[in-house]
Amino acid sequence: MKKIFLGEKNFHEIHENLSGISKAINSFKDNMPIDYSEDDRRYEGVFGDYEFFLPEKVVDFTEFGREFRNCVGSYTRTVIKKDRLIVIARHKDTKKLKLCIEISGEKKCLYKRR
Questions:
Q1: What is the pTM of this model?
Q2: Phi, psi of 112 (to 5 degrees)
Q3: Which among 74, 80, 77, 81 has a CA at the least distance from the CA of 100?
Q4: Average confidence (pLDDT) over 29-55
Q5: Hey, which residues does 100 pair with through a beta bridge?
Q6: How far lies 39's CA from each of 12, 43, 85, 87, in Å?
Q7: What's the CA gap between 53 and 60, in Å, rounded?
Q8: Percent helix, strand and coil across the chain, each to the nearest 5
């Protein structure tokens, strides 16, 4: 591999430094809490055998998307902008995720876990 020198540092060193900064920024963003209104919180609670809750951090959307095998992980920005709300339901005893509910204006979609 040919090294390209930029001043005292080579390209690889600069890349590694920038990657470290990028990882720190992404880690900060992933752990950023989601701000919900009191009205949003009305969807939370225990009903029958299910606990309904709102994702608390940005990283939660990615984890739930992986678990549900859907694209809920890409909805973070629209939830932060208050364009839609995502409500997750899990079994109250096993804590196993069961439902992913999208609320957007008049539109309400339900996604069941397979």
A1: 0.69
A2: -90, 145
A3: 74
A4: 92
A5: 88, 111
A6: 50, 8, 11, 13
A7: 12
A8: 40, 30, 30
